TrEMBL record, chain A:
PANTHER family: ABC TRANSPORTER PERMEASE, ABC TRANSPORTER PERMEASE PROTEIN NOSY-RELATED. The chain crosses the membrane at residues 18-37, 57-76, 97-126, 138-161, 173-201, 246-266. GO terms for cellular component: plasma membrane. This is ABC transporter permease. GO terms for molecular function: ABC-type transporter activity. Signal peptide: none annotated. It comes from Cerasibacillus quisquiliarum. Keywords: Membrane, Transmembrane, Transmembrane helix. Pfam families: ABC2_membrane_2. The keyword Transmembrane helix applies.
Automatic annotation (TrEMBL), chain B:
Pfam families: NosD. The gene is nosD. This is NosD protein. Residues 1-22 form the signal peptide. Residues 139-328 form the Periplasmic copper-binding protein NosD beta helix domain.
Length: 273, 432
């Protein structure tokens, strides 16, 4: 029950907060700009340059914003003493963090729904070609990214003491998972024997939510063949009837593990002090 | 399946009543052919005929509607070993699992038209056969067989000056396969759901025009040829396999490739070890990779339109090609003097291609956000780049695609999202 109370409070705070609306405006403008700026091609179904650009832009923006909002939101509770007050009640760290996650998730998903809703309407009235499948694809793609990165954000918030640390932590995670990921692996793995290369890349992909969601999405949209023969089995597997359920399970594992670990380490650290 | 069952029942029937019924149910074709004099016409009334027939004189065979020829004990269902034979309006159903061809032609000046062929192997084999005309054919393979087990739709070996047109081929290995053959003319055909649509090996002066190739592993494979003409073809949706390509030019010299529409393929146009080819006015649209060069020189790639390909082009060890004056959908050019060409050049960095060539598992980073960041950091030497010094400002190919707009479903779905989100915001923010 505590979880729901925390979540409700988070939703209310969120929608009365100006950051939610600045994020809403930013993301709506961003979605519109990309969908309306197409390179002169009439249809935009499947994996095209438009879809590719849109996916990359989303990958740049959404994880960063989610990480910042989520981690700072938890860190602020610690800084201004709200958590100190709440902890005098029988409220565990775990239910506090889960409440935060649910509340923020509802806030962010609402913002995404609004952005895609407005963009879809505008595309329709301006006569821009936008297929229903593309719209739903991006909506789900963005929502899944938000849900996973929010888990990480909450964990960062649980581990830090103030919002500056939260900021640094968030940006580091974003920079590693989104920006320098290929560079990191290409530089390290080029030294290793070739036989290990594939296994390490395979395992590492599951360790990076941005890559995980991107690769799954590309395979689902029918672009699996660009990854080459090495990943042929993946493509067959993702497009089999197990593909989506297993992906959902992996996403749930990501969220529960990050939040669980966050709560656990936070508790251990407080006990030590 | 129904036909197959019918044949099965018929066969059983013959088994039991061999002496009486066999004559009326299924007629052997060979005696009928033997009775026909050279130059005469053999009319086949509706019914089923037993094939395994050899034609060794110039005759004309016309089937009435619903004439079906079934395989004989062994060998091709119909074998043409003469010149000037015409066969038309016949269905041939060959469900055997042997290596025998369904129709075998080893003669010149023959004509096959309006044939409907179902085969588990090679549909029509031309062996050292010249000046034949094959048209309005429908060849269907067995889609339950793997690509390697199937045979080619139409297979030409050492055969020159043949014409193949207006035919439909599905579920075979290669739709039209030509080897060691010269000056054949292939136009207006459609090949789908096969390995390669059109496959040329060591041919001379083959003409491929107005053909279509959809949902195959690859659209057209042109290999080891000289003087091939590839014009006005449509190669689309060849993308399921990791080897998928729209059009491959491998070890090709002096080909003319023009006015083709190549879209939705894994790689639109792949040019490897090819030299002195002229590639112009093609439309490459919405492929994962538009054009890819490998070890190719002295090709002229001009006035093509590259639109909405995820990666427009990749080039490696291919610096001596003329790749000027193309239209690149993602290029923002500036035309200062108003001649229709941009003064800002367009360049494609081979970084990703050379990296994944050495370490194929890194292909998982195709178009990853971090990969683009990396490409900015490490440029390959610029002399290896595919570059266009004077890109066109406007698309040279007038697209006939009608303007599409979003469907009403998009609007409904968007409105639902919009109402749901605003309701949640309102409910969340209001004071209780």
């Amino acid at each position: 029950m505590h979880i729901i109370t925390v979540a409700k409070r988070e939703i209310k705070l969120g929608f009365r907060n100006s950051w939610t609306y600045s994020f809403l405006i930013l993301f709506t403008l961003f979605t519109m700009a990309i969908l309306l700026l197409q390179s002169g091609v009439q249809s935009a179904e499947g994996y095209t340059d438009m879809t590719g650009t849109m996916m990359n832009m989303t990958l740049y923006l959404l994880p960063l914003l989610t990480l910042l909002l989520g981690s700072v939101s938890v860190a602020i509770e610690k800084e201004n003493g709200h958590w100190g007050l709440l902890s005098t009640y029988a409220l565990t760290r775990m239910s506090f963090l889960w409440g935060k996650w649910i509340g923020l998730a509802i806030n962010l998903l609402t913002v995404l729904a609004f952005s895609f809703g407005v963009t879809g309407c505008i595309a329709f009235f301006f006569g821009k070609p936008l297929s229903l499948s593309t719209l739903i694809f991006f909506w789900i793609f963005s929502s899944v990214l938000v849900l996973i990165y929010l888990g990480i954000a909450i964990a960062i918030g649980a581990l830090v003491n103030n919002r500056w640390q939260a900021l640094i932590g968030s940006i580091s995670i974003w920079f590693i998972t989104v920006i320098i990921w290929p560079l990191l692996f290409i530089s390290i793995l080029s030294i290793l024997p070739y036989s290990m290369l594939y296994t390490i890349i395979e395992v590492s992909t599951f360790m990076n939510p941005a890559e995980l969601v991107r690769i799954f999405a590309m395979m689902k949209i029918g672009a699996g063949s660009v990854f080459g023969p090495e990943y042929n089995q993946w493509v067959t597997w993702v497009n089999s009837s197990f593909g989506t359920p297993v992906f959902i399970v992996v996403v749930i594992i990501w969220i529960t593990v990050t939040i669980g670990l966050g709560a656990l380490i936070w508790e251990r650290r407080d006990q030590r002090e | 399946m129904k036909k197959f069952l019918a044949i099965l029942v018929a066969l059983l029937f013959i088994g039991f009543n061999q002496t009486i019924e066999a004559e009326t149910e299924q007629v052997p074709l060979q005696p009928l052919i033997d009775e026909t004099k050279p130059g005469d016409t053999l009319y086949l009334p509706p019914g089923e005929y037993i094939g395994g027939a050899v034609i060794n004189k110039p005759i004309h065979i016309i089937g009435d509607d619903q004439v079906t020829i079934l395989p004989g004990k062994k060998g091709p269902v119909i074998q043409v070993k003469a010149n000037q034979v015409i066969i038309e309006n016949i269905s041939i159903i060959d469900q055997r699992n042997t290596n025998d061809e369904t129709v075998y032609i080893a003669g010149d000046d023959n004509e096959l038209k309006k044939l409907n062929i179902k085969t588990n192997g090679v549909g029509i084999q031309l062996f050292e056969a010249n000046d034949n005309k094959l048209y309005q054919l429908k060849i269907t393979g067995n889609k339950n067989l793997s690509l390697a087990q199937r045979g080619n739709g139409i297979d030409l070996w050492d055969s020159d000056h043949n014409t193949i047109h207006s035919s439909q081929i599905t579920d075979v290995q290669d739709g039209v396969y030509l080897e060691k053959s010269s000056q054949n003319d292939i136009y207006n055909n459609i090949v789908t759901h096969s390995r390669y649509g059109y496959h040329l090996m060591f041919t001379n002066k083959t003409t491929l025009t107005e053909n279509e190739s959809y949902y195959n592993v690859s659209g057209m494979m042109v290999m080891g040829t000289n003087g091939t003409v590839v014009k006005h073809n449509e190669l689309k949706h060849n993308l399921k396999s990791v080897q998928s390509l729209g059009l491959l030019l491998f070890d090709v010299k002096n080909a003319q490739v023009a006015h083709n529409k190549i879209s939705h393929n894994k790689v639109g146009l792949f040019i490897e070890n090819a030299h002195k080819n002229d590639i112009t006015l093609n439309e490459l649209e919405q492929n994962f990779v538009g054009v890819q060069f490998l070890k190719s020189t002295e090709n002229s790639v001009t006035k093509n339109a590259f639109l909405a390909n995820v990666v427009q082009g990749q080039a490696e060890r291919s610096s001596d090609n003329d790749t000027e004056s193309n239209f690149w959908g993602d290029h923002i050019g500036v035309d200062v003097n108003g001649d229709g060409y941009s003064q800002l050049s367009y360049q494609v960095d081979p970084f990703y291609l050379s990296l994944t060539k050495e370490y194929p598992p890194f292909q998982i980073y195709f178009q990853a956000p971090g990969m683009q960041f990396l490409e900015q950091l490490f440029h390959a030497p610029t002399d290896q780049w595919l570059s266009d010094q004077s890109p066109l400002m406007d698309n040279p190919i007038k697209s006939e695609t009608e303007a599409k707009t979003s469907s009403i479903y998009v609007l409904c779905f968007s409105i639902i999202l919009f109402i749901a989100s605003t309701t949640i915001i309102y409910m969340g923010a209001r004071k209780k």
